[in-house]
C-alpha cells in the first residue's frame, strides 16, 4: 500500500491507496506552530489498524519550506556572488551578507578572469563574525563552467566546519543568473528548518518500525527521495497545487488539451494540460518576491471561491478577491457564492447539514443584494453563479493567450508550433458540481468533476512518481560535454554526434531518476528539446554546439 | 528585481532553423550566443520588458515596398516574412502604447534590399524596416519618420526606397564605400527631386571608434533630427562596426553602441548586420537593450575590451570633424542645392547597375522621376537582369496628386508588350498590380 499525505495551509489530507483503490482517507487540521506534530498525528491516525510492514512508500507534500519563506523564518545566509560584466548587480543582494567578487566566466564557459582568493578570505571572516552557517556561491554562467563555484565551496567547507553550501550550477541547467542567485539563496535559507523536519520524520518512522521509503513532493508534480530533499529542500516549495493537479489527473485521466480547476473556499487554482501532460512554468516558480529556477507546474491562483465575499458596486457585482469569513448562511458577515447555491437549492442539504435557519439567511443575503440591482433573490443568485463563470472564463482566456504567445525561436515553431486548445474542463473542489453546468455553457466545453474530490490532493501526492530533468551542453570544438544538474563535466571526442548526445542524455536522466528513488520500470525518459548548431569561425566549421533537455515527466503510479 | 525606466518591447527571433547556407555568416548560429547572454542576464524578468513573437508579414506588405521579380511567392521565404513581421510587431507595440520603445532582434537583415528585388544581395531580400514602416503608415496614417542606419555597410536598399520621399529622412553612417561593400553611400547621394537633402550619407574612414561615431551623432545626426522633428525614429541597428567584426574595419564597441542608442533615443531599433557572433553580438545587443530600457549599461563589456587599443587615431578624428561639417552644411543648404541640381527639368533620370552579390545577379536599371509641383511625382523603373527579365515598374507615391495617379494607371495600361513583367504600386489606394 501507498501512503499519500498533503499538508495544506488549513488541513492535512491523507490517503491509503492499495492496488489502485483508495482504502482510507483522513482530514486533520494543520497546526502551523508545529508542522511535524501535525503530520505525525495525521500519519498515525491514517495507519491505525493497518500493518506497517505492508507500506510500499510514503509520499509527502509539505509546506515546511514554503511557510519558512512566506513567514520569513529563514536561516541567515552568506552569499558569494560573481556577477561579471553585464547588468547592475546590487538587486541580487538577497542574503544576510552579500559579497560580490571579481572575475568572470563568459557564455562559452571560458574563465576570462579568475576569482581573487583574498576576497573569499574576507568573505569568510565576515561570515564568521556574523555567525552565519549557510552559504550560497553563484557565478554568472556557472552552468557552463562550475569550477569557480566548486573551488570556493571547497574553501568555505575547509575553513568553516559544519557549513552548508549551495552551488548555483547544481540548482538548474537553465541560464538565468538572477534566478540562480535567488534559488541558491532560498535553498540555503530553508536547509536547516527543512532538515530538522526531515530528521524528526526519520526518527519517528524508525521508532514506529516503518522502513518504507519516504518521498517528498516537488512543485513539478513529481517526487524525490529524502537524501535528495536534504540537499535540495527548496525543490519542495509550493508542492500543494502540484498535488492537486496530480490528484485531478488521477481521478479524471485524459490525453487531451484541458483546463483544470481547483475551486476552493477562498481561491480557484487554474492549470492546463497539453495532450494530457501538465504545463510547466517556463523558467521556474515564483515565491513571494523571488523568481526561481525551480521547475514547477504552471498554476495561477485567483481570489474566487465558495466563500468569497460579494458586494454590488456601481450597479455591478463584485465577487472576491477577499474572503471575509464563512458564508452569510452560517453567520458570516457577507453574502457569498455558497449563499447563492443554497438559495438556488443546488446544495445537498443533508450533506451540508443545512438547517432551516441557514437556508433562510442565505435567502436573506440574496434578497438584500438583489434589491440593489432590482432582482429577485433567485435571479440574484443565478447572476452570481453566472458572474463566477465569467470571471473564470476571462482569466482562463487571458492565460491561454499568454501561454500560446510564449516566445519561440524557430521558423517551424512559429508556423506550426503547438497551441493549447482545450477540449474539456476538469474541476475539483466544493462548488464543482454547481459550477460545472455554468462553466459548460460559458466555455462551450464539456465539464467533468469527480465524486470524491475532497482528498484529490492527497491522492495526487500518493500516486506521484519521481521526476527529473537534465540539461546537456556539448561543444565539440572545446571537446566538452556538461550536465550541470548532475555536476557532470567531461571530455568528449571532436566527432561526437547529436545522436550520441541524445542517447547519453536519456541514459543520464534515467540514472538521475533512479537516484531519486524511482524504480526502473516506472521511468519514462524522453528528450524534450534538442538542437545542434554548426560553429563556424572564419570560413571553417570548427565544431558543433548542441543543447539537449531530457526529462522524466510527472506521471502516476499505476 | 530591476525595473526598466522605459517600457521596452523585444521581438527576439533568432530563426535557429534558417541559414543562407551552412557556413554563411547569416546562419543558424548567429544569435545563439546573444540568446545565451539575454537569458543568463535574466532580461525576461526585468519589470517593464516584454517579449513578443513576430507576426508574419503578408504578401501585400512586401508589394507595398518592393517590385519582386517575378513575384513575392517565388523569391521571398517564410523566414523573410517573419523577419519583417518581427519588425512590424515591434513598431505596432510602440504605436499601441503597450511599450515606450521596441527592439526587433530579427534575422535575416534587410537594408540592402532595394525597390526592385531579383534575389538576395548583401544577405537581404526584403527591406525589413521599409516593410515595417509602410505597413505602420497604412495602419496609423502618414508619419514623418527618420531612419538612422548605424550598420557598417551603407544602407543602399533603404536609400533607394526612400530616395524621393521627404517624409522619410534617411541618414546612414557607414564605412566609406571606397573600402567596403556595397561601394555606395557618398555625400553626393542626396535624394531625388522631391526629397533632395533628405538622404544623408556619412561615409566614415576605416578605424573609426567610439569617439568618431559619437562625434558624428552629436554634431550631425542629432542636430538634423532636431530640425527635422520626426514623429518616429527608427534605428537600423547593424552591429558590424564592432572592433571584432570579421567583415569590416571599424573600432566601435558595445559601450559605444549603447551610448549611441541612448543619445539617438529611437522609438524602434531593428537588428541589421553584425557577424562577430561570439565576441560582439551578445554584448552589443545587451548594451542596446539596456540603453533602450533606460537601465544602467556601464558594466557591459566585451571579454577582450582594451580601451587603449581601441582609441581612435588623431588623424581620423580630424577627418571626421571636417566630414561632419561638410555634411551638416549640405543639410543646411539643401534647398539652394536642390534648385541648382534640378533647374529647368521636368524629369530626372537615375541610371544604375546593381549587383546581387549573394545570388550573383547583375541588374541594370533606370529610374525616372517626374517633377510635379503638386506631389512627389509618379516615377518609374525600367530594369533588366542577366537572368532574362526586363521589367517596367510604376510607383504612384503616397502623396500623389490626381494627375499623377491617372498618369500612373495610364503608364501601366499602355506599357509596351516587350517587357517580361509590368508592375504598378498605387500607394494612394494601397493597390498593387502586375502583369
Ligand atoms: Zn552590415
Ligand atoms: Zn503630381
Describe the structure.
The complex is a heterodimer of chains A (558) and B (435). The model of chain A has no long low-confidence stretch (mean pLDDT 93). Chain A is built from 14 helices and 27 strands. In chain A, strand 24 and strand 25 (488-491) form a beta hairpin. In chain A, helix 10 (377-404) packs across helix 12. By secondary structure, chain A is an alpha/beta fold. Chain B contains 12 helices and 16 strands. Chain B has helices at residues 32-41, 59-63, 72-75, 78-95, 128-140, 156-161, 210-228, 254-264, 281-293, 314-332, 334-341, 402-413; strands at residues 3-13, 47-52, 67-68, 101-106, 116-117, 145-149, 168-175, 199-204, 232-237, 268-271, 347-356, 361-370, 379-385, 390-396, 421-426, 431-434. In chain B, strand 13 (379-385) and strand 14 form a beta hairpin. Chain B is globular and about 65 Å long. The model of chain B has no long low-confidence stretch (mean pLDDT 96). Chain A binds chain B through residues 85-89, 91, 106-108, 110, 112, 140-141, 174-179, 283, 289, 291, 405-412, 414-415, 531, 533-536, 538-541, 545, and chain B through 1-2, 12-18, 22-23, 27-29, 32-33, 35-37, 39-42, 44-45, 51-54, 56, 78-79, 82, 246, 278, 282-283, 286, 290, 295-296, 299-301, 303. The site of one zinc ion (ZN) has 7 residues of chain B, from loops.
Which terms would index this structure?
heterodimer, A: about 550 residues, alpha/beta, Nucleotidyltransferase, domain 5, 6-stranded mixed beta sheet, 14 helices, globular, B: about 425 residues, Arginase, Chain A, 2 domains, 8-stranded parallel beta sheet
Q: What's this entry about, in short?
A:
The complex is a heterodimer of chains A (558) and B (435). Chain A is an alpha/beta fold and 558 residues long.
Topology record:
The complex is a heterodimer of chains A (558) and B (435).
Chain A: E1 2-7, E2 11-18, E3 21-29, H1 35-47, E4 57-61, H2 64-70, E5 77-82, E6 97-100, E7 104-105, E8 111-113, H3 117-129, E9 134-139, H4 147-159, E10 164-167, H5 177-208, E11 214-217, E12 223-225, H6 226-231, H7 239-251, E13 258-263, E14 268-274, E15 277-278, E16 286-287, E17 290-291, E18 300-302, E19 308-313, E20 316-323, H8 337-343, H9 356-372, H10 377-404, H11 411-416, E21 424-428, H12 432-443, E22 447-448, H13 456-463, E23 468-475, E24 480-483, E25 488-491, H14 498-515, E26 525-537, E27 540-552
Parallel strand pairs in A: 1-4, 4-11, 5-6, 5-9, 9-10, 13-21, 21-22
Antiparallel strand pairs in A: 1-2, 2-3, 7-8, 11-12, 13-14, 14-15, 14-18, 16-17, 19-20, 23-24, 23-27, 24-25, 26-27
Helix pairs in contact in A: 2-5, 7-13, 8-9, 8-10, 9-10, 10-12
Chain B: E1 3-13, H1 32-41, E2 47-52, H2 59-63, E3 67-68, H3 72-75, H4 78-95, E4 101-106, E5 116-117, H5 128-140, E6 145-149, H6 156-161, E7 168-175, E8 199-204, H7 210-228, E9 232-237, H8 254-264, E10 268-271, H9 281-293, H10 314-332, H11 334-341, E11 347-356, E12 361-370, E13 379-385, E14 390-396, H12 402-413, E15 421-426, E16 431-434
Parallel strand pairs in B: 1-2, 1-4, 3-5, 4-10, 6-7, 6-9, 7-8, 9-10, 14-15
Antiparallel strand pairs in B: 11-12, 12-13, 13-14, 15-16
GO cellular component, one term (chain A): cytosol
GO molecular function, one term (chain A): 5-oxoprolinase (ATP-hydrolyzing) activity
Protein name (chain A): Hydantoinase/oxoprolinase-like protein
Amino acid at each position: 500500500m501507498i501512503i499519500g499525505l498533503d499538508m495544506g495551509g488549513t488541513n492535512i489530507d491523507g490517503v491509503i491507496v492499495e492496488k489502485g483503490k483508495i482504502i482510507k482517507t483522513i482530514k486533520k487540521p494543520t497546526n502551523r506552530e508545529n508542522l511535524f506534530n501535525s503530520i505525525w498525528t495525521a500519519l498515525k491516525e491514517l495507519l491505525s489498524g493497518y500493518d506497517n510492514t505492508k507500506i510500499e512508500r510514503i509520499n509527502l507534500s509539505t509546506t515546511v519550506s514554503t511557510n519558512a519563506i512566506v513567514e520569513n523564518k529563514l536561516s541567515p545566509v552568506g552569499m558569494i556572488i560573481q556577477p561579471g560584466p553585464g547588468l547592475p548587480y546590487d538587486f541580487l543582494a538577497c542574503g544576510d551578507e552579500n559579497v560580490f567578487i571579481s572575475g568572470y566566466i563568459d557564455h562559452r564557459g571560458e574563465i576570462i578572469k579568475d576569482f581573487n582568493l583574498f576576497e573569499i578570505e574576507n568573505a569568510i571572516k565576515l561570515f564568521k563574525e556574523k555567525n552565519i552557517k549557510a552559504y550560497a556561491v553563484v557565478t554568472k554562467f556557472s552552468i557552463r563552467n562550475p569550477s569557480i563555484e566548486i573551488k570556493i565551496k571547497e574553501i568555505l567547507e575547509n575553513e568553516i566546519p559544519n557549513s552548508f553550501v549551495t552551488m548555483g550550477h547544481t540548482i538548474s541547467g537553465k541560464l538565468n543568473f538572477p534566478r540562480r542567485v535567488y534559488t541558491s539563496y532560498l535553498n540555503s535559507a530553508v536547509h536547516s528548518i527543512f532538515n530538522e523536519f526531515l530528521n524528526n520524520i526519520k526518527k519517528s518512522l524508525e521508532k514506529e518500525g516503518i522502513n518504507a521509503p519516504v518521498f517528498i513532493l516537488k512543485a513539478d508534480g513529481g517526487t524525490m527521495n529524502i537524501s535528495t530533499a536534504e540537499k535540495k529542500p527548496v525543490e519542495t516549495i509550493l508542492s500543494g497545487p502540484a498535488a492537486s493537479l496530480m490528484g485531478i489527473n488521477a481521478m479524471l485521466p485524459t490525453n487531451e488539451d484541458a483546463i483544470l480547476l481547483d475551486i476552493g473556499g477562498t481561491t480557484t487554482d487554474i492549470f492546463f494540460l497539453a495532450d494530457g501532460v501538465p504545463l510547466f512554468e517556463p523558467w521556474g516558480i515564483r515565491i513571494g518576491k523571488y523568481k526561481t529556477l525551480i521547475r514547477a507546474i504552471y498554476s495561477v491562483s485567483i481570489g474566487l471561491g465558495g466563500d468569497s465575499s460579494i458586494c454590488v458596486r456601481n450597479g455591478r457585482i463584485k465577487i472576491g478577491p477577499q474572503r471575509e469569513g464563512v458564508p452569510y448562511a452560517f453567520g458570516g458577515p457577507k453574502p457569498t457564492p455558497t449563499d447563492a447555491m443554497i438559495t438556488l437549492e443546488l446544495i445537498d442539504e443533508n450533506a451540508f447539514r443545512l438547517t432551516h435557519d441557514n437556508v433562510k439567511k442565505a435567502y436573506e443575503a440574496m434578497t438584500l443584494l438583489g434589491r440593489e440591482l432590482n432582482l429577485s433573490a433567485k435571479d440574484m443568485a443565478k447572476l452570481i453563479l453566472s458572474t463566477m463563470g465569467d470571471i473564470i472564463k476571462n482569466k482562463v482566456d487571458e492565460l491561454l493567450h499568454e501561454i500560446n504567445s510564449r516566445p519561440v525561436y524557430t521558423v517551424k515553431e512559429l508556423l506550426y508550433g503547438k497551441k493549447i486548445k482545450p477540449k474539456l474542463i476538469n474541476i475539483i473542489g466544493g462548488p464543482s458540481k454547481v459550477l460545472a453546468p455554468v462553466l459548460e455553457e460559458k466555455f462551450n466545453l464539456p465539464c467533468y468533476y469527480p465524486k470524491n474530490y475532497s482528498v484529490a490532493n492527497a491522492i495526487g501526492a500518493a500516486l506521484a512518481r519521481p521526476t527529473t530533468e537534465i540539461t546537456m551542453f556539448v561543444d565539440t570544438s572545446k571537446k566538452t560535454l556538461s550536465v550541470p544538474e548532475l555536476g557532470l563535466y567531461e571530455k568528449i571526442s571532436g566527432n561526437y554526434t547529436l545522436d550520441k548526445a541524445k542517447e547519453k542524455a536519456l541514459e543520464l536522466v534515467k540514472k538521475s531518476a533512479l537516484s531519486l528513488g524511482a524504480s526502473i520500470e516506472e521511468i519514462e525518459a524522453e528528450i524534450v528539446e534538442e538542437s545542434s548548431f554548426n560553429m563556424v569561425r572564419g570560413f571553417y566549421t570548427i565544431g558543433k554546439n548542441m543543447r539537449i533537455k531530457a526529462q522524466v515527466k510527472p506521471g502516476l503510479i499505476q | 528585481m530591476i525595473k526598466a525606466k522605459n517600457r521596452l518591447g523585444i521581438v527576439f527571433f533568432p530563426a535557429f532553423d534558417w541559414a543562407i547556407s551552412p557556413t554563411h555568416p547569416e546562419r543558424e548560429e548567429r544569435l545563439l550566443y546573444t540568446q545565451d547572454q539575454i537569458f543568463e542576464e535574466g532580461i525576461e524578468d526585468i519589470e517593464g520588458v516584454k517579449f513578443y513573437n513576430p507576426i508574419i508579414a503578408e504578401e501585400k506588405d512586401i508589394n507595398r515596398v518592393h517590385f519582386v521579380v517575378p513575384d513575392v511567392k517565388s523569391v521571398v521565404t517564410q523566414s523573410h516574412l517573419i523577419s519583417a513581421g518581427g519588425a512590424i510587431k515591434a513598431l505596432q507595440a510602440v504605436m499601441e502604447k503597450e511599450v515606450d520603445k521596441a527592439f526587433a532582434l530579427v534575422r535575416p537583415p534587410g537594408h540592402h534590399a532595394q525597390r526592385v528585388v531579383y534575389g538576395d544581395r548583401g544577405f537581404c531580400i526584403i527591406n525589413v524596416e521599409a516593410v515595417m514602416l509602410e505597413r505602420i503608415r497604412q495602419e496609423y496614417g502618414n508619419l514623418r519618420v527618420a531612419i538612422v542606419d548605424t550598420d557598417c555597410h551603407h544602407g543602399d536598399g533603404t536609400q533607394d526606397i526612400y530616395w524621393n520621399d521627404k517624409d522619410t529622412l534617411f541618414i546612414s553612417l557607414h564605412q566609406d564605400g571606397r573600402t567596403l561593400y556595397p561601394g555606395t553611400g557618398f555625400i553626393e547621394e542626396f535624394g531625388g527631386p522631391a526629397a533632395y537633402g533628405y538622404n544623408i550619407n556619412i561615409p566614415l574612414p576605416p578605424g573609426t571608434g567610439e569617439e568618431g561615431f559619437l562625434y558624428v551623432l552629436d554634431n550631425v545626426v542629432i542636430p538634423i533630427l532636431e530640425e527635422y522633428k520626426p514623429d518616429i525614429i527608427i534605428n537600423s541597428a547593424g552591429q558590424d562596426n564592432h572592433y571584432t567584426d570579421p567583415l569590416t574595419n571599424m573600432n566601435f564597441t558595445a559601450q559605444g553602441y549603447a551610448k549611441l542608442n541612448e543619445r539617438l533615443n529611437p522609438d524602434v531599433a531593428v537588428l541589421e548586420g553584425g557577424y562577430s557572433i561570439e565576441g560582439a553580438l551578445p554584448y552589443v545587443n545587451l548594451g542596446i537593450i539596456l540603453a533602450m530600457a533606460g537601465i544602467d549599461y556601464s558594466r557591459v563589456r566585451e571579454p577582450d575590451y582594451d580601451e587603449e587599443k581601441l582609441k581612435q587615431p588623431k588623424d581620423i578624428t580630424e577627418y571626421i570633424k571636417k566630414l561632419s561639417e561638410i555634411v551638416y552644411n549640405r543639410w543646411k543648404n539643401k534647398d539652394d542645392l536642390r534648385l541648382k541640381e534640378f533647374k529647368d527639368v521636368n524629369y530626372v533620370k537615375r541610371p544604375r547597375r546593381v549587383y546581387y552579390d549573394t545570388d550573383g545577379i547583375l541588374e541594370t536599371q533606370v529610374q525616372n522621376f517626374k517633377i510635379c509641383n503638386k506631389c512627389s511625382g509618379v516615377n518609374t523603373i525600367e530594369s533588366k537582369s542577366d537572368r532574362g527579365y526586363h521589367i517596367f515598374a510604376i510607383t504612384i507615391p503616397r502623396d500623389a496628386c490626381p494627375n499623377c495617379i491617372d498618369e500612373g494607371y495610364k503608364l501601366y495600361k499602355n506599357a509596351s508588350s516587350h517587357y517580361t513583367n509590368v508592375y504598378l504600386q498605387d500607394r494612394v489606394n494601397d493597390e498593387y498590380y502586375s502583369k
